[in-house]
């Protein structure tokens, strides 16, 4: 029972911590080369295909809260959990300056979570000073509710850099968890 209370308290702490970064992320994104919402939606339409209406609504909500991103990642990932879980993904990061680089991510999670999913993922990246600063751990809370298919938005952060994954997935998964995503230059099976 103490673990449950601890996880709930930790979850609320992270949610309120992330929301306090909203104003900071919006202010900093105004001072950098950023992507306009229509550019993000256009890239998402090409990437997600048929679920693009949901993507447009998600991007609109995210940019209202966080501002304009200065990079985004398009990729795919797979994850599974039974209280403890793992997530693995790969994709390409695009910056406004024209940089494109292949990246990988992986990470563990812990929480009230069970099931599995495969997802096409667009991650909006805020306050990324250069692509090399992406290669670290970004912590956050994730909630999933998939039965055959679904769409979800979360946020993870490390320092001033905030990443907002938007996922369109297939599978069966339900739950809430705490975890992190670790970005790497090459593929690895080690989520830690």
Distance between the termini: 27 Å
> How many strands?
5
CATH architecture: Beta Barrel
At the fourth CATH level, what is the homologous superfamily? Rhodococcus equi virulence-associated protein
Basic shape: globular
Please count the helical segments. 3
Number of domains: 1
Radius of gyration: 16 Å
Give the uncertain stretches in residue-range form: 1-30
Find the CATH topology: Lipocalin
Signal peptide: 1-25
Keywords: Signal
Protein name: DUF1134 domain-containing protein
Pfam families: EipA
Which terms summarize this structure?
alpha+beta; globular; Lipocalin; 3 helices; 5 strands; 192 residues; disordered N terminus
What's the quick description here?
This protein has 192 residues and is an alpha+beta fold. It is built from 3 helices and 5 strands.
How would you describe this structure to a colleague?
The protein has 192 residues and is of the alpha+beta class. It has a single domain, classed as Lipocalin. It has 3 helices and 5 strands; from the N terminus they run αααβββββ. The chain has helices spanning 2-30, 37-48, 52-66; strands spanning 71-95, 100-126, 137-153, 155-158, 161-184. Strands 1, 2, 3, 4 and 5 form a 5-stranded antiparallel beta sheet that branches. A hairpin with a 4-residue loop joins β1 (71-95) and β2. α2 (37-48) runs antiparallel to α3. The two termini are 27 Å apart. The model is unreliable at 1-30 (pLDDT under 50).
Give the helix/strand layout.
Layout: H1 2-30, H2 37-48, H3 52-66, E1 71-95, E2 100-126, E3 137-153, E4 155-158, E5 161-184
Antiparallel strand pairs: 1-2, 2-5, 3-4, 3-5, 4-5
Helix pairs in contact: 2-3
